[in-house]
Structure formats: structure tokens, C-alpha cells
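User: For documentation purposes, I need each entry recorded in a consistent format: the amino acid sequence on its own, followed directly by the corresponding C-alpha cells. There are two entries in this batch. Please keep commentary to a minimum and don't merge the entries.

Assistant: Recorded as requested. Entry 1:
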Amino acid sequence: MSIIAQHAELFLILACVFGFFMAWGIGANDVANAMGTSVGSGAITITQAVIIAGIFEFLGAWLAGGEVTQTISGGLIRPEVFADTPQLLVYGMLAALLGAGCFLLLTSTLGMPVSTGQSIVGGILGFALVSVGTEPVNWAEIGKIVASWIASPIIAGTLAFLLFESIRRLVLNHDNPAEGARRYIPLYVFLAGFVICLVTLVKGLSHVGLELSTPMSILGAVILGIVAAVISRLLLNRVQLLDTHQRSDRYRNVERVFGFAQVFTAATMAFAHGSNDVANAVGPVAAIINVLNNPGQIGGESELAAWVLVLGGVGIVFGLATYGHRVIRTIGAKITSLTPTRGFSAELAAATTVVLATWFGIPVSTTQTLVGGVLGVGLARGIRALDLSVLGRVFLGWLLTLPGAALFTAVFYFILRAVFG
């Protein structure tokens, strides 16, 4: 009897436990990218952030997480290399989950925002290199992902800069800034709603049995975006504004109005994060399940079970609720001073970047997209608005993520191989 058949149930249990642990690490560290700017700007409290993110992170993971999951599970390495030794692929994926999860536990304890995408990629590369060398690594796919790590913060930063500049011109420089906010915020809400609804309709709903054509998806996204904009307009009309005799009160009115809008963008970013980053936890789990079900057909196509996405979504929410406050405080308050207008611009830019990446099945780093967005709104006020020492520590953490996760994974790989043979 093969090792796979002999320990199939134990491997499945370990995959679920380690996958949940990795998802917990994502919630503890990376969800700060969805909620950090909202908390830092004062738009919502940490408790409210946990509730909002808990709902939309889970929905994003469940509805729209499957496309990126397939990239992680089968795109980073060529599983067919392990056709004669499928147990090595199982050991490696288990070690990658455990190693990347431990690295995230360490950085979350220190309050350091790092990329969970880089963590799991480092883990998978680490096990591949120590097990069979460079042969199974899909360097073309790795190259695309690495390129996205460079491009995503640049794209998000550019979008955030342009969004904040548009707010400055259309709202802050308006004769009545509060009235300008009431007039233009629904347009920004429409944009956010359209992007999120479009990727959900096109990529995600197949997991719940509903598939729409691209034209129908675009039409549905437009309708839902309009509904979101109308609701935002009705809610904004109910906002009680301060006396505007003082010029400073005018800008406080704008920030109050954008504070309400930022709740929507926070939910948008949480959905985008869940849809993209659930792959970092459940992609290796899906690969392990494929091996257990078909040990003789390594690398074959296999449908992703919906319960795997649910497992990842629940783990992310649990990590956020128990440990996420540490990194939220770091990214929300220490890089630059945030207000609701700045946080709104950064979040919408980052959400758009992440959702577009999810559309194309590229697992980008929400850490880097959000930091790029924050940098964009900070640069709109000049380089002195940024705390360069904090940014230096953040960038150092990014540089250490790949080798750190790879080192943890290599150790756990040798332990698992020694235990099971």
C-alpha cells in the first residue's frame, strides 16, 4: 500500500488544519490592508472594522476566489514532475502552508504588514528547491507574479494620486466643499460598485451555480453600481453638517461626508482582498486534495470544492477577529496621516487594482497595492507627508518574506518527510 493511500485521511486532516492556520495568518496580517486606512482616518472603529471585514472577506473568498486559487495550486510549480513520488508533493504543500503560516504569525506579532502572497510563493519555492531542485518550478508563472509585485503598487499609487487629485479639484476647491462632496461621491461609489460587481458576476458566481455571459455581467454590474450610487446619495442627504461660517468647518464637513463613503470602500476592499488572497491559503489545500483523490494523475484538471473556499474564508475572518488589530494600527496610522478623503482614494485605488488582478487570475499582494495607494495620496501632499523610517521597515519586511517563508518551509518539509518516510 502506498504512503498516500495509507495516510490519506491524516493528510486531509493536516491539509485542512494547516490551511486554516494559513488563512488565520492572512486575516491577522493582511486584512489590515482592507481596514487599516478606514481605522486610521477615524471613519470606523476597530470593532466596526472587524464586523465589516468579517462579512465581506468571507463573501469575497466564497464567491470570487476560485480563479486565483487555480493559479496558486497548479501554476507555480509543475506537479507532473512528482508523478512517481506524489507523496513529496503532499509533504511540500503541507510544509508550505505551515511554514508560511508561521512566518505570518511572527510578523503579525511584531505588527509588520507583509505580503501573504509572497509568503506562500516563498513556501512553495522553498519546498520545491529542497525536494527536487529547480525542475518543477514554473519560472514563467513566477516571473508574472513577481512582475505584479512591482506593477501593482505603481498602478495603485497612480490611481490613488489621480483619485485624490480629482477630489481636490471637484470637491475641496468647490465654492461649497460639502455640496461638492454630496454631488460627486455617488460617482465614486458607482465606480467602486461597478468594479466589484463585475468581477463577482464574471468570475465568481459559478461557485454557487450561476454563470452569466460577459454582456449580461456588464449590464448587471452597471445596474448594481447605479443602485449603490443612488443609495449613497440618499444616505448622504441625511447627513447633518456643521455650521459653515468657519472655513475650517467646510473641510470638516467634507471629511464627515467622505467618512460615510469610506465605509463602502472599506467593504469593497475587504471583498477584493478575500477574493484574491484566499488562494494563498486554500490553493495548496486544493492541490493536496487533488493528489489524494487521483494519486496516479498528478497535474490533471480537478474541480475546486466549494467547502475549501469556505474553510479559507472562515480562517481569514477568525484571524482578523483575534489578531488583526496589531497590523491595522501600523498601516492605518504610521505611514502617513490619513483623513477620510485620503483613505477613500487609497482604498478605492487598491480595491480596483486587486479586483482587476483577480479578474486575470494573478495573485497580487494587497499589502503592496494598499501601501502603493497610501503612498499615492501621501505624495499628493509632498514627500514630507510620508514617514520614511516606517516605509523602510515595511520594505525590509517585504524583502525578508520570500527567504523567511522558504526557510520555515524547508525545515517543516524535512520534518514531515522524516515522520512519514
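Entry 2:
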Amino acid sequence: MKHRGRHRRRRRGQALRATLAGTALALTAAATLISTSQATGSGSPGGLTALGTASRTAPLRLHEKPVDLDTLDRLTKDMGGNVGVDGVLGRADHAMRDEAGCSTAERAALPVEPTATRAYCWDEGDERTRQWQPRSVTTSGDADDDGHWGEHRVILAGWTHRDRQAAAPTRDRGLARVAFVDATDPRALRYSWVLLVAPRDGGRDFAPVRSALDGMVWYQDKLIVTGAHGSGLLVFDMHRILRADVDSGAVGRVSGGYSAGGYRYVLPAVDAYEPSGGACTRRGGTPCFGSLSLDRSSAPDSLVAAERPAAGSERTRVWRYAYSTAAYRTGLLADSRGRVDTVEAYETKAAGVSGVLAHTPRGTRGARWYLGQAPEAPTRHGSIWRQTEDGAEAATCTADRSHACWGLRTGSLSYWQETGEVWTLTRAAGRRALYAVPLSAVDGSLE
């Protein structure tokens, strides 16, 4: 990547402000006439409650456990060196369909209010989208404040293998991979796959990472994702994208080189953040990580998190960690001798949180928190709430004043500060779409 300082290139003259033809999406009348009994999110979660005591924030503390540098260097050298984001995008072999090319079912999964101003659907001929589920999104707007990585605008979408109908566990179950989407031309998005792996045997081999990828943030040169079962975070270095030289179903070192289960590229983990209290419990103790996002409006920039929804839970914790400002720790969290503490933490009565954002508008004090709330019925639209300690607001989009206006089974949220857009994706089989809504439109839809 061509950059200065902390990857902050200011090439405003070249910044692409994409304008798509057509008006905002409109859904069918059937989608807007959801009854009160069918809708979810109709009851307000009220204001956020601060977790003010050390005993309540202690379960959110993390410990850093970096991978040995010699291990990483050996694997990088043996696999021929860094391919780079440009190398992956240069081999993007799947074209995304714009909104006009999406199916009726895919369009019906898009939000009712506010409507999406950009929407894309995955390549219908891509067999690697079958039995897999998209769950998280981050962009080059997170990576660099001018919205570019090198010469490209990029969207990353995290997918996990979710073959729930197989009679026995499959080899791919739980594998984690990322779609690298070249979004430089908003009229012609293309993508390629990268498999997430973990180095082993001192860098002589690697194993697949297994994670639901509920959350993912690309900041500076690091990609942080949720770990296995939501227990902790994994860190990947975007300068260590490696190419597999053997095409086989195996993952790791094989006769003749390295294989990535049929994928061209792998991204090995370089660091990890583990909960200080041990494995997550989902019951008020150590949280299982769910959605993640970046907040560039905080000082310093921060990683925002929400715990993974627990069955029957009526409360959800949301919090943030500060990023390090040290030049030698680009993209890593601020730490004190390997310990990472929260800088802000709350509890919300919004259950089933599938996405979280925090943002402080210029000239105001205190962050606004945006929570994507999953519906009780998986076939219904969700809600997006804006919360502060003073209360909560959400759009209404039906005659019965329902708040079920957001997308259908959406994943994490990502705010592209340079364009002012919130990105997310829908994950229901046959209804998968990637879309953007201006944050100003979200605010304008609130009552």
C-alpha cells in the first residue's frame, strides 16, 4: 500500500464519490404490511446503562498473545512472500450483480425504512456461496480515512461454513473465509476468496481457522475478527496474504507445497486477544464476542463490540477498546503490558443484537450507539435502534407502527466515514445481499 504515517493518505482529489443511477429501493406492499404479532423490535429497549464499576467491566478485559515473529517470517518466506491486497483483487473472478440484477427474494431482504442507496448480490454461479453464510463486513473506509487501500476501494465480507443439514460433520464446517471485493468501480464490483488460517509447527505448516465471523474490522494494516465460538479475537496482517501453490482439498502443507482447500490465497493469524476470565459464558460473565465495528469519531480511534446474543437473554453488553497510537503497533489495541481494558461499556435491553456502531457527530458530546436487532421470527425484518443513555429511537414503517424496518437477518454494521454510509449484509439463504444506507438517512428516519 502507498501510504504516509499511520496509513492515512489524503488524496481527496481522487476520492471516488459513487453515484448510482436510479432511485432508492422500494419493497412490495406485502413487506410493509407486517402485523404487530409478526413484527419484532416494536418495544423500545430504552436508554443505555453504563457499566460503571471495575467489577462489571473486568470480564471484558483481554490479554494479548502474539504469534512468534520467526514463525510468521518462515511461513511467509516458504510461501513466496506477500501477495498483497492488489494481488488478490487482480485475480477477482466473481462479478457481483447490482440491485437491478438481484432476484425478487434478494431485493425483498433489503431494508424498508430507510431504503438502501446501493445494493449488490453475489455471483449466482459461485458454488462457494452454497452452504456458506455471510456474517460480517468491513471496508477500506475503516482501513484508511481516505477510503482507499492503494488505488482501490475495497469491501471485505466474512463468511463461515454453515452446513447444518449434513448427517455428519463436514470437512468445511466452521471454516472462515473473506470475500475481497474490489469496489473501485461502483458499477462493476468483483470479488475473490481468501481463507483464514493459523500458523503451526513453527511456521512450517498452517491449519484452518474455524469461526462464525460475527464481527470483523480492518484498521490500518490489521484485520481483527471474532475467534472460535466468539471467545476472544484473532488478528491478521494484510501484509502477509500468501498464495497456495497446490490445488487440493487439503488445508496446510502437502506434498509439493501448500494447499488451501481449493482457494488461491490464505491469510495467517499474527496475534490474538483472549478473555482474561477464560472461555466465554454468555451468561453475564466473560462475553462471547459478536458484532464488531470501528469508531473513527472517538479519540483515539476505537474498536466497538457487542456480545453474541444468548438464548433467552434480555440484556446485551456493548463496549469499546481504544486502538494503540504507537507507530510500532499499527492496527493493534492499546495495551498495558499485554492487557487490554475497555474505555467505555454499557448494557442495553435490546436483545438479539446482530450489529453495533458507535459514532459521535461533530459538535456534539457523547456517542450515539446504533444496534441492529434481529427479529424473533427468522423470516421477518429486523430493527435498527439509535441509543444513548437518555433513550432509544427507531424508524417505523408500517400502519401498525412496527419498528421491523431494517434488513432481513442482517450481519454486522460498518460505517464508511468518508462517504457517510453504513454497510451491512443479509445472510438468509436465497436472500443474500450487500447494501449501504447513509447514516444521515438512518438518523432522518427516527422518531
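Summary note for entry 2:
The CA atoms of residues 283 and 310 lie 8 Å apart.
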